[in-house]
Amino acid sequence: MENVLIVYAAPEPKSLNGALLAAALKTLTDQGTCVEVSDLYGMKFKAVLDASDFPNRWDTTVFDPAAEQIHAIATDSIAPDIATEIEKVRRADLLIVQFPIWWTSMPAILKGWFDRVFAQGFVVNVGTGEVYGRGLLRGKKALVVVTAGSPAELYAPGGPHGDLHELLRPLTHNLLQFCGLEVLPTHVVYNAAGIAPDDADREVEMYQDRLLAIEA
Amino acid sequence: MENVLIVYAAPEPKSLNGALLAAALKTLTDQGTCVEVSDLYGMKFKAVLDASDFPNRWDTTVFDPAAEQIHAIATDSIAPDIATEIEKVRRADLLIVQFPIWWTSMPAILKGWFDRVFAQGFVVNVGTGEVYGRGLLRGKKALVVVTAGSPAELYAPGGPHGDLHELLRPLTHNLLQFCGLEVLPTHVVYNAAGIAPDDADREVEMYQDRLLAIEA
After folding, report:
1. ipTM exceeding cut-off 0.90 for this assembly
2. d(Cα A148, Cα A155) in Å, to the nearest integer?
3. Domain chopping of chain B, boundaries
4. What are the tens digits of pLDDT across the range A89-117?
5. Which of A215, B179, B186, B191 is 20 to 30 Å apart from B156, CA to CA?
6. Which residues of chain A lie closer than 8 angstroms to B115, CB-CB?
């Protein structure tokens, strides 16, 4: 891979997520990969899609987010902070999406990154059927990296929580695959709540090995 | 039901979601029910859980959201906007969660409401096993009400998107049931993108009928 974008949504650098991010940065740059990071908490990224994202409104009487996204992409008039993220996605061969599982899905700030940055007209074109295998981000890969507080047993198929990979399908399938990305198997760190330092070190090493095993 | 809280996350009042909300308010208040509404866009609700939610920190050296939530609930020191929402949830017999499906899940502002308001120590107590049937919100009911842009066929089991009810499980099961709420079958309006006025009127009536059929 030449270019990797890591979209990172954890509030505390001195955390397992912080250690995983630092390890990914080192591992990838040591390989000669160009890495960009969108540290959403660090950037104080605006989480909420609203009318102010569209300074050049298509229809000022009724706010229809999808219609405004299509118009804003077509006229290159989306809010500057979104445009910056779009350029990062355009440059990336691999998109790494890293977050702690909160309520079995993404922290709000990361959901908001997708709500705002993955604009219709940029990632898909529903009207022309450019979705899934014809999605506008085809040719790129995606890797979802998560830490889960609970142990793996609770997420076993038939377990009390259900299979975590199924529960992440709204992200892996309905969002990333829908946009044409090739989605690699999700990298999960279970038992992350109060993890012991030795276990954390081992998880960091396993993540580095996982990154090195990704084929260009 | 005596008390209903509607948590509502749509940015445009002149939308099908706005019409559904207005109809619910009328239908429920006509029945003598006390209805509170948290209109998250209207309130400009802060979507992102961060350290400023915890003015009386348990540990100022490392920010651990779960630990801070438990401490803040135990010491009654959570941020005032969260405390206000917690009181609304406490008063409610039925929690209605209404939103347009964005990327097959909640808009970020609503995910943030759950990240911030459904604080550990208030909704569950993992350490003492007070989850699922023993969750701290047991005795209350929940109804998820969503509009989906796509037609129902795309969400059929085995269809390209997959079963919408399965895709909403992180909310219905892993969040609401996890906290002890009795979750009613999700009310879905498919084909909501560009819905014709007559069809919208019929959907509003069907939603009113649905609300009237909920048993106390």
Report:
1. yes
2. 10
3. 3-215
4. 999 999 999 999 999 999 999 999 999 99
5. B179
6. 102-103, 107-108
CB contact A22 to B (< 8 Å): no
Find residue B12's DSSP bridge partners.
none
pLDDT of residue A158: 87
Enumerate the β-bridge partners of residue B145.
B98, B187
Q: Which chain A residues in 31-50 lie under 8 Å from chain B, judged by CB atoms? A: 41, 47-50
Strands (E) across A10-82 are located at 34-39
Q: Is CATH 3.40.50.300 the right assignment for the domain spanning A3-215?
A: no
Torsion sign across C-alpha atoms A168, A172, A173, A176: positive
Residue A33 and residue B45: Cα distance in Å, rounded?
39
Grade residue A170 by pLDDT with cuts at 50, 70 and 90: very high
Closest CA to B62 of A6, A10, A203: A10
User: Could you tell me the pTM of the whole model?
Assistant: 0.98
How far apart are the C-alpha atoms of B141 and B176, rounded to whole Å? 9
Q: What's the count of helices (H) and strands (E) in chain A, helices before strands?
A: 7, 6
For B105, which of A50, A102, A170 is closest by C-beta distance? A170
For A26-74, the pLDDT digits (tens) are 999 999 999 999 999 999 999 999 999 999 999 999 999 999 999 999 9
